[in-house]
Design goal:
With 158 residues, the chain is of the alpha+beta class. The chain folds into 2 domains: 48 residues; 103 residues, Arc Repressor Mutant, subunit A (Orthogonal Bundle), CATH 1.10.10. It is 40% helix and 12% strand. The protein has a 3-stranded antiparallel β-sheet. It has a two-stranded antiparallel ribbon with strand order 4-5. The longest helix has 16 residues. 23% of the residues are buried.
Length: 158
């Protein structure tokens, strides 16, 4: 499970996610108010599964609001198994790196997500190169041959 901390300004309603969840912001980033959390507590912590985070990274930009949007199992195949199958179907010049990077980053093997730095140290590449390989892997997962297998797990909420 991934914990995401979001802060919401009580005065202007602006919502943001800090880079370091341990640090509480001193001012609102939009209205520059120092009293952004005086009226009500503006911090919300959500627990989201690694599979949901990966689906959100593949199909949209930003963080998901909840796990509700994704089905757990369709026709006896779980979302985790479908993601592993799609990731193993990645073909390309650096397919082995892309597969291992995505699996490590989103903790599909051991349940522990890893940072770019941790993955880079394991493979022996820089953070920036890991990020580029990860993005190329996402592009390959968005290809219709792979994405059609994954899109059935997204529940359309009106």
């Amino acid at each position: 499970m991934v914990k995401i901390t979001r802060h919401t300004c009580a005065l202007c309603g602006w919502t943001w996610r800090p880079l370091d969840p341990a640090k509480k912001p001193k001012i609102c980033l939009k209205c520059k108010s120092r009293e952004w959390d005086k009226l009500k507590q503006g911090t919300r912590v959500m627990e989201i599964s690694n599979e949901t985070m990966l689906m959100a990274a593949i199909f949209c930009h930003g963080f998901p609001d909840s796990d509700e949007r994704y089905h757990n199992e369709i026709n006896g195949v779980s979302l985790h198994d479908a993601l592993i199958t799609a990731i193993n179907g990645i073909k390309g010049p650096s397919d082995a790196n892309a597969r291992s990077i995505i699996v490590d980053r989103f903790g599909l093997n051991d349940g522990r997500t890893k940072s770019l730095r941790e993955v880079g140290q394991n493979i022996g590449l820089s953070n920036e190169r890991i990020r580029k390989i990860e993005l190329s892997g996402f592009r390959r997962l968005r290809h219709p041959s792979n994405s059609s297998k994954l899109k059935i797990y997204i529940k359309q909420l009106a």
